[in-house]
TrEMBL record:
Pfam family, one: Vps35
GO biological process: intracellular protein transport; retrograde transport, endosome to Golgi
Keyword presence, Transport: yes
Coiled coil: none
Free-text function comment from the UniProt entry: Plays a role in vesicular protein sorting.
Keywords: Membrane, Protein transport, Transport
InterPro entries reported in the protein's UniProt record: Vps35, Vps35_C
This protein's record includes keyword Chloroplast: no
Family: Belongs to the VPS35 family.
Name of the featured protein: Vacuolar protein sorting-associated protein 35
GO cellular component terms given for this protein: cytosol; late endosome; retromer, cargo-selective complex
Organism: Schizosaccharomyces octosporus (strain yFS286) (Fission yeast)
Membrane topology: Peripheral membrane protein
Length: 835
């Protein structure tokens, strides 16, 4: 294949053909190097380099060809350096030799290859070679070829450029750090010009395609700035030499793609400490960029960079002591916040010198950027504010005035502007505002921090219901997750002003969230009972807005209030007795609301019984009597089935039996009413058992406390006899027998308790009657028994799945009488079986 191309003539061939020529030339060059034929190696390498003048290649294809060709050049450079070190050839001589190559592009590639190898030698004339190479590269002005040529120059001279300022005065021929800076800046400037010129090659219809191709090539230009950042220069050099030169090129190129990309690279590659000293230059630069440049990513990039810098430095400083800056902020307690932040040192002050006033500087420039671009989108403004808010929260958490400025700007210049009302309804913007409101919540475990931001709540209230609902739910989860106590009444009021959106939402999907609010009540606590009652009043006033869902919220308030009554007594504050009476009135008011609006009769009854029990324990018999009265009222008014009636009557009986502080008349009135209710139950077995349980109301158990117990043996006997009468009237023999056995057990109990009205002859007669009924049952035919449907006459508490067998009843009776017979050694018990 004839690969000879006239000097400096353009070529046009497919990439595949160019690669074939390069591979063939590369193999020949490798053989020449192995045999020591250096001139032939140069000639074959030049043949490969001629393909770099191919006009038919796209930037992506040209890059592929470039990568293969430069790999060949690197092998050539390594071989030439080796010949120099072993004394075969001097690289300076070879550097002059390759300058006689006939074609400009191959000549320059060869000069860079030989020159960069020479720069790595100990006695190299570094400054002279650097200046020569950078000047010679100006000979290629084709945008694409010149861009890749200078990129090759940049990569090959990476090791040879002087980088240590300590050696600047050692040998003038070696060059100085500033020579390297000027070298890289000049190369950067020329590469950027070539990169921008690509945009204007060809017809306008290919403008978008060229923009995409330039976007793929931008890293070639940005590598210059990366190399610059790796030099060991000081702040003065950066501020007075490097940054002004870069800024000048960014502004003068007037290309939106180049301006945006290069500004971002400046932000990313240079040290954070230098950014802190040059924020004015950076922000003044981006405000001078073309209007087509998006400033939002550039502002956010710098703010996020400084935020990460403070976090990183604080974590490094605190790694051996207290932990990371994030952990420090997460450990902010309510006590810390209530005592103020004046004496606390912010993470930002530990890392950044307070003399820089970085908070004020950043905020000033943020506002300037927003004001400088009247056409900046509202969504972009919100994103910028989100980044600066995160900076304030992470770096200056104790200086809440800065974070509040963000919410103030949102409130005054966005939410209250009529021109923005349509945009504020867009979901994307609502999502961005949600992210801003969430930042202080997720950054700190305590909602009290948000309350230190006066403009937080106005911004929150301006959001639509769905956003406020999600934020309120997040606040609830955070408080419970971190187990943060809120003790200040004002904080509680502000908190429920936020979560009221959940309380007022009466949908079924809010039930779980309402239960979470009920859990939250346990974290609202003040050690002063007088403040705590005000907190509970605040809760009640908010919970009544839940409508029927109040049944999920008020019970916990009732419970907290009941236990608070004991704290009032123990605290012995001024007028504590009167305040406790007010507290019991408050309990009653809460349960009335629950009963009237919550559709929760059963729950209300349970709460009344609990309140009555606690009021009796705390020796408030008048309130206990009232609570029992209300419980009876609910029992009467509620439309309950027989099973539920029976179970509720058992609860009332159990609570009444435990009371110890009623007067005799009040107690007698209550237990008489309870016994009367038992006698009016629908089913005979329920009546029997209800009265049987009510008998215990007339015979209270002894306790360790010094209290007067109520006992009336005569009324106990009347209840047992009434139960026997009802049991005997049951038509079902099995049900009747079961009731007889239960009554017999109660007779044994009272006899053991030495109840005077229970005599041995009564028990003996009942045993005979029960055994007689058992014999009658055994003699009956199964077809005569109504027990084929065991639930027909069964008691409400009996689960008679499959029914009771007669054998089970007989065994039950035998065990009951046998237990009593075993105590026959006692004369009292022996009388039972001797009658």
């Amino acid at each position: 294949m004839n690969t000879t191309v006239p000097v400096n003539e353009e070529i046009s061939r497919p990439l595949e053909e160019s690669l074939v020529i390069c591979k063939q030339s590369s193999r020949l060059m490798q053989k020449n190097l192995q045999t020591g034929k250096l001139m032939d190696a140069f000639r074959n390498c030049s043949i490969s380099l001629v393909e770099m003048r191919n006009n038919d290649l796209s930037p992506k294809q040209y890059y592929e060809l470039y990568m293969y060709t430069t790999e060949t050049l690197r092998r050539l450079g390594d071989a030439l350096l080796e010949t120099h070190l072993n004394g075969t050839h001097h690289l300076m001589d070879l550097y002059e030799l390759v300058q006689y190559a006939g074609s400009v592009l191959p000549r320059l590639y060869l000069m860079i290859t030989v020159g960069s190898a020479y720069l790595e030698t100990p006695k190299a004339l570094v400054k002279e070679i650097m200046n020569d190479l950078i000047d010679m590269c100006a000979g290629v002005q084709h945008p694409l070829r010149g861009l890749f040529l200078r990129h090759y120059l940049l990569t090959q001279t990476r090791k040879g450029l002087p980088q240590d300022p300590d050696h600047d005065n050692a040998d003038p021929t070696k060059g100085t750090l500033m020579d390297s800076v000027r070298f890289l800046l000049l190369n950067f400037t020329e590469m950027n010009k070539l990169w921008v010129r690509i945009q204007h090659l060809g017809p306008m219809k290919d403008y978008v395609r060229r923009t995409q191709e330039r976007n793929e090539l931008k890293v070639l230009v940005g590598l210059n700035l990366v190399r610059l950042s790796q030099l060991n220069f000081n702040l003065d050099t950066y501020k007075n030499e490097i940054l002004p030169a870069i800024v000048e090129q960014i502004i003068e190129c007037r290309d939106p793609l180049a301006q945006e990309y290069l500004s971002e690279v400046v932000c990313q590659v240079f040290p954070d400490e230098m950014h802190l000293e040059t924020l004015d230059i950076y922000f003044n630069t981006i405000m001078k960029l073309n209007r087509g440049v998006k400033l939002t990513p550039l502002v956010i990039c710098m703010v996020n960079r400084l935020t990460a810098y403070v976090q990183r430095e604080c974590e490094a400083e605190a790694s051996d002591r207290e932990g990371s800056v994030n952990q420090t902020m997460q450990n902010l307690s309510l006590e810390d916040q209530s005592s103020g932040f004046e004496n606390k040192i912010c993470p930002g002050d530990k890392v950044i010198s307070p003399s820089l006033a970085i908070q004020e500087v950043l905020w000033t420039y943020i506002v300037d950027v927003i004001n400088a671009r009247n056409g900046i989108a509202l969504g972009d403004i919100v994103q910028i504010l989100s980044s600066i808010l995160n900076f304030f929260l992470q770096c200056y958490p104790y200086q809440t005035q800065y974070a509040d400025r963000v919410f103030q700007l949102i409130n005054e210049r966005i939410l209250q502007q009529a021109s923005f009302q349509t945009e504020l309804k867009e979901k994307s913007l609502q999502k961005s505002l949600y992210s801003i409101l969430v930042l202080p919540i997720v950054s700190f475990p305590s909602f009290s921090y948000c309350l230190n931001l006066p403009n937080f709540l106005p911004v929150f209230r301006a959001q639509p219901n769905n956003i406020r609902y999600d934020i309120a739910k997040l606040i609830l989860d955070k408080i419970i997750e971190k187990e943060q106590l809120i003790s200040d009444l004002k904080d509680v009021q502000e908190l429920f002003g936020v979560i009221s959106v959940i309380i007022k939402n009466n949908g079924n999907d809010t039930v779980e969230d309402l239960k979470t609010i009920a859990i939250l009540v346990h974290y609202l606590y003040n050690e002063d009972p007088q403040v705590q009652i005000e907190i509970l009043r605040c809760l009640k006033d908010n919970f009544v807005q839940a409508g029927e869902n109040v049944k999920y919220l008020l019970p916990v308030v009732v419970n907290k209030c009941i236990f608070l009554a004991r704290e009032f007594r123990l605290f012995k504050c001024v007028d504590w007795a009167e305040k406790v009476r007010v507290l019991w009135d408050f309990v009653n008011a809460c349960i009335v609301i629950l009963y009237n609006h919550g559709d929760s009769a059963e729950l209300s009854l349970v709460l009344y019984l609990f309140a009555a029990e606690m009021a009796d324990i705390e020796n408030y018999p008048d309130f206990a009597y009232e609570f029992f009265t209300q419980a009876f009222t609910i029992y009467e008014e509620s439309a309950l089935d027989s099973r539920l009636q029976y179970q509720q009557l058992l609860m009332i009986t159990g609570k009444l039996q435990k009371t110890r502080n009623f007067s005799v008349d009040d107690y007698d009135t209550l237990i008489t009413k309870c016994t009367l209710y038992a006698s009016k139950l629908l089913k005979k077995p329920d009546q029997c058992r209800g009265i049987l349980h009510a008998s215990h109301l007339w015979w209270q158990n002894e306790t360790t406390e010094e209290t007067v117990i109520f006992r009336d043996p005569k009324r106990v006997l009347e209840c047992l006899q009434k139960s026997l009468k009802i049991a005997d009237s049951c038509m079902d023999q099995i049900t009747s027998l079961k009731l007889f056995i239960n009554i017999l057990e109660q007779y044994f109990y009272y006899y053991d308790q030495r109840c005077d009205s229970i005599l041995a002859k009564h028990i003996g007669g009942l045993i005979d009657l029960t055994e007689q009924n058992m014999r009658s049952l055994l003699a009956s035919s199964p077809n005569d028994l109504i027990a084929n449907d065991p639930n027909a006459y069964a008691s409400s508490i009996w689960e008679t799945v499959g029914g009771f067998s007669v054998d089970n009843l007989r065994n039950h009776l035998e065990k009951t009488t046998d237990l009593a017979a075993k105590r026959s050694e006692d004369e009292r018990w022996a009388r039972i079986f001797s009658t």
